[in-house]
């Protein structure tokens, strides 16, 4: 029993300060600050998600199709930014963000709920009829998510690995334009996924910048390149135009950057001793 | 878990991979080590890897040379053709991409050990070939599409004279998801896994520059060699031998004329390269299998089993049909595939090309029919005189009832790279000068 | 064209040596080989409606799963602990396979099988030496989550303390005695929650939480400022006049405290130390004597303190659970006992803390002492001497 805590050099060093040059491959106490900052970032976003979802579902329940449509994409961004954490709660991830093709009967499936079910109603059916129950459930789910996330101790590897997870998410299901298939507001989600990944990277960057100048320069460059492409698709209201306006050239550019970011950000865990 | 069994199985696999199974077994057995496990486990287990061949695994094709490998190289059993969109912002980017691509292709085709990395990081290699990569006859052939030249002004004026976007022929039903591309890579190897490994390596290492647009995997059935060492042309999925009339790739002078791009109207940098015409040609195999044999043979103009011309059914596939003796096509119909494609006239000598196709099988279509066909790949010095002219001659042929081209594209296979140089260096240098 | 590469030569030469050398070398070679090529521990085939197998049992520890998508849609495969995703592989295309390696503690898990509407399978992880060893190994990594979470708590409660003090100041400035009294009650709570660490900034502690009893001039001492000076004004002198400068100073000091807490270096030793110490202080100080002498609302403060200790204890229990489950259980029980006892006393509706009988105070103090002793055992279990 007595020997437990001696098993790990890193812990012994961190606590006792016996020697310098702890194994670089083990995690360091320096991670505490970015991990905490990230939780604060997530907490801000879930608070905003509750606020925005309240307005969105109010519009749905008031039968105001146009207003609901205009609030759909901006409301989702708070969710998309924090997806690595949000999707830890599988029941809520499913009821909030599942897509029709996750279900046997697709759009007609009684279990199809959440943002995309309401999106389907608003855009495909052009009406809020029958959406009230989905709106109530969505708001309740989002509040529940907020409460659960506030009580959660974030697993460090999920936070650090989250940057790459967001990029994999974009590469696998966003670049193909299948996420917001009825509203074509995919670029909003893109942007939010990138912002969420960049936030994690920015928080961790001070811990890796010293001896990894090539790495950080490359990642910085790729995030900047993504921003540059997305900026072209900004709409007048600060949002984004339809996914259908994305040119093949720009889609390819995004795809290449996303995959390269995914490759590079996948090494963050290893670099920070959380492999 | 049975550790004993697991160890000995692994050991046997290790030995067999390097062709020393019998030797190792004898020696280990004779000194009494693991004798019991050895006896109990000699019989292969169901999930053992199928026995490979050390000799073919070690085959390698030199990467460097005046021309790229994978064109005149005898075609091995497996191929992948992959077309990419290229994301480069500048000539410098383009050069970085070509250098990296060259580095990866040179490594993969020559084989070697995968570098070890800290296990906390994603591994450097997919690992699907294990810790040591055997070359396995792999070639990787790089081509560029017209769209790449058209899009970048720093490549202006450097496009090979006949490089163009493939246009629809009358029988085509082109699927945009299977057409064109800025860049092509042809992977050929003895085993499909070697190609898949190479493709994954490229996709991983060049993600910054290359976005996969479409790909087709293909194969050709191996045939045991005759006593003199020769093998016939491989059969396509219609059951006919394909490639009988190919020009002789060992005839260097002929290849200079037929395959390697030359001539004053082609940019200097492109000399020694070759136009690559690729077509994904679906075969309606169910329907074909229901067509009478005589009709099948008339449509092709060859005997199905031997490949011999119809006017000499007992001859071999390499015998040349005598169309002069059959002007009306009573024996070999004028609209048969081989007669239209190559009328064997002095004039048709201009239209020669070197075909290097694979068969593909991609599962099932919505209508329940098999999605099978020919991954047609041909190389020629002049795209217009080669594939385009021949295809125009073939338009309307009776075979069209059984085939449907659904994809493909035209590319220019770059000249080869000398040792220490990279593929496409002549193009980059030309762009820097202009 | 057929000259073998250098690597192949090496492999052949190496194998010949191995073959001659026999047992030991073989063992080494196969171990290495096994390390890179071992198949997954468990194959799971996901078809259109179920997983095959649908009920899996594996020993605890680091396990690998090879998931084969035999359905005609892309799938994700997840291991769930209740509603929490333990590990997942997403976007496995039809016909493709994907390998997932995950550290599994003994217990019952669910697995998803393709479509969300498909019934879930079960994953039973049985106890094993490997799992026990992994759980009992204390690494810095296991502290990272709890340390970060405590930092978040410090930041959020620190900010809440500033906000509450601002509300108190506003009520004082508005000369609203009743509102100011209520605001004072509320203003104490966030501070009490983070006091286990906050009190260590002694310069601020003296300004924020000074008590007349420790000052030469008692209530008239110029150093008597902060919460209790305001309390004295509102509850003993029954007025707001003259309190505004104290309220402004409190806001400023708490703002400084929040900034320092945000940057306070946290380490496992500190995290282990502070809850037990805090529980003991309360048991020996505030419970017998009371602290809010003028407002008399100590029960409210004590509840907030217990919340703060409970936060720390909960975080540490995440670390100790795998190492010493018995201690984990004891801490949980002691914590619950103290909370329940405090709630019972509060339910008796004593007008002020002074009305709480000594016997009840002693019993509560005993609870806190016991909790503190349990928390102190964390040090030998998961910390360093």
UniProtKB/TrEMBL annotation, chain A:
Keywords: Signal. GO terms for cellular component: cell envelope. Residues 1-24 form the signal peptide. Coiled coil: none annotated. Gene3D superfamilies: M75 peptidase, HXXE motif. It is found in: Cell envelope. It holds the Pfam family Peptidase_M75. It comes from the Bacteria. Residues 35-268 form the Imelysin-like domain. Its main location: other. The keyword Signal applies. Belongs to the EfeM/EfeO family. This is Imelysin-like domain-containing protein.
UniProtKB/TrEMBL annotation, chain B:
Binds 1 heme b (iron(II)-protoporphyrin IX) group non-covalently per subunit. This is Deferrochelatase. Protoporphyrin IX binds at residues 243-245, 302. Residues 68-218 form the Dyp-type peroxidase N-terminal domain. It is an enzyme of class 1 (oxidoreductase). It comes from Paracoccus denitrificans (strain Pd 1222). One of its GO terms (cellular component) is cytosol. Its main location: other. Heme b binds at residues 243-245, 337, 342-344, 355. Its EC number is 1.11.1.-. It comes from the Bacteria. The keyword Lyase applies.
From TrEMBL, chain C:
Gene3D superfamilies: M75 peptidase, HXXE motif. InterPro entries: EfeM/EfeO_iron_uptake, EfeO_Cupredoxin, Imelysin-like, Imelysin-like_EfeO/Algp7, Imelysin_sf, Iron_uptake_EfeM/EfeO. Residues 148-377 form the Imelysin-like domain. The chain crosses the membrane at residues 7-29. Signal peptide: none annotated. Coiled coil: none annotated. Keywords: Membrane, Signal, Transmembrane, Transmembrane helix. Residues 20-125 form the EfeO-type cupredoxin-like domain. This is Iron uptake system protein EfeO. Pfam families: Cupredoxin_1, Peptidase_M75. CDD domains: Imelysin-like_EfeO. One of its GO terms (cellular component) is periplasmic space. It comes from Paracoccus denitrificans (strain Pd 1222). Belongs to the EfeM/EfeO family. It is found in: Periplasm.
